[in-house]
Amino acid sequence: MSAVEQYARAYILTDDDIQDDHGAVPVVLRYDPADPRSVQVRLPGPHEWTFSRSLLEQGLRAPAGTGAVRVWPCGRVQAIVEFHSARGVSVVQFETKTLLRFLRRTYMAAATASAVAHR
Q1: All structural domains of the chain
Q2: Is 17:87 a contact under the CB 8 Å cutoff?
Q3: Rounded to an integer, what distance in angstroms lies between the CA atom of residue 110 and that of residue 104?
């Protein structure tokens, strides 16, 4: 089974070394069935985080995470993902429907991979 990649637009709310004009930036959401419990978020430049898929799902309903990645809902249509690194904190705002669509695709890919593995 191949990886799921979804391109999205997000707003960087902090960390000016990623985005200077605070407009929407291209983001890549990635899931590899070979690592079924993780997802990746790739921001412009050398900014990539791998974290628990369940953290992303939980954070769409209520604040979740205590380490390098934290996720929480922001109103009805947006979600915030906060990334902590040695270089600082990046706060990224997504449309919730974008993240939900990505999660649905990851669960479909996982189910397909599992079905193929059990043949």
Answers
A1: 4-117 (2.30.31.20)
A2: yes
A3: 10
Write the single-letter amino acid at 41: V
CA distances from residue 24 to 17, 44, 64 in whole angstroms, order as listed: 15, 11, 24
Question: Are the CB atoms for 90 and 15 separated by under 8 Å?
Answer: yes
CA distance 31 to 105: 9
Residue 40 in contact with residue 48, Cβ under 8 Å? Answer: yes
Specify the pTM. Answer: 0.86
Strand pairing of 38-43 and 24-31?
antiparallel
Among 50, 47, 75, smallest CA distance to 60 is for 75
Q: What pLDDT tens digit does each residue of the chain (119 aa) get?
A: 689 999 999 998 875 554 445 678 899 999 999 999 999 999 887 789 999 999 999 999 999 998 899 999 999 899 999 999 888 888 999 999 999 999 999 999 988 877 766 56
